[in-house]
Specification:
GO terms for molecular function: hydrolase activity. This protein is of the alpha/beta class and 249 residues long. 35% of the residues lie in helices and 14% in strands.
């Protein structure tokens, strides 16, 4: 396992499918600690650690989705020899999708299923939420979504630590465009909160057009960060989705 890119929150469970999780904009690998614990070893949960945050905070964040997905696909290639699935939330959904496309183009085995959470399909872009310029606009948007603790946003020292990653991530989303390429071969499950202020249900449902495999849409109570309160439901969705894909968790 590439210790630069991936974090595991406990011993590796033997003989379990690997679930690779991609965080949201400004997020870090630790955001998936509750999900990892909720699975209790039924899956081998790996969380992606993007450059520019936590133990990689001295590294320069990636400034574009394309370059980021290129690097992630390269890091993931050695892990594709065993069965795996991907889960991405918000910006992480875009990166999971684009990483899967690159692995397919390189002839690598695809994920058993791709779970795309809190994000509309790229064919529905642009999203006004992605087109933020100033720090004030970014902070207002983050506060509105509730994904970063207000204790961080209200502490000048902590804010100085997280702002470079937030600027880079929102800059990457703001310049991302879908190239109209072929759909994924892997099955896809889209997940969205019923009160998400930036992702409409029909936008999440449009992921159906981006796979030739099985597709499922799951709607859970909550806003953009519904998964903070619905971790058990997300575990059930992932487990059922992998069973539908012919895999066991």
């Amino acid at each position: 396992m590439d210790s630069t890119w991936f974090r595991r929150f406990g011993p590796a469970p033997e003989g379990r499918m690997r679930l690779v999780c991609f965080p949201h904009a400004g997020g870090a690998a630790s955001s998936f600690l509750p999900l990892s614990r909720a699975f209790g070893g039924r899956l081998d949960v790996l969380a992606v650690q993007y450059p520019g945050r936590q133990d990689r905070r001295r590294e320069e964040p990636y400034g574009g989705i394309t370059a980021h997905a290129d690097a992630l696909a390269e890091a993931l290639e050695p892990l594709t020899e065993e069965p795996y699935a991907l889960f991405g939330h918000s910006m992480g959904a875009v990166l999971a999708y684009e990483t899967t496309r690159r692995l397919a183009a390189a002839g690598q085995p695809g994920p058993r299923r791709v779970f795309l959470s809190g994000r509309g399909a790229p064919s529905r872009l642009p999203n006004a939420h992605d087109r933020l310029g100033s720090d004030a606009e970014i902070l207002a948007a983050v506060r509105g979504l509730g994904g970063t603790g207000h204790a961080v946003l209200d502490d000048p020292e902590l804010l100085d630590m997280v702002m470079p990653a937030l600027r880079a991530d929102y800059g990457a989303l703001g310049t991302y465009t879908w190239d109209g390429g072929p759909p994924l071969d892997s099955p896809v499950t889209a997940i969205v909160g019923d009160a998400d202020p930036v992702v409409a249900i029909d936008e999440a449902a449009a992921w159906h057009d981006h796979t030739t495999g099985d597709f499922g849409l799951e709607i859970l109570p909550g806003g953009h960060f519904y998964l903070d309160e619905r971790t058990a439901d997300v575990c059930e969705i992932i487990t059922n989705g992998l069973l539908a894909a012919g895999s066991t968790a």
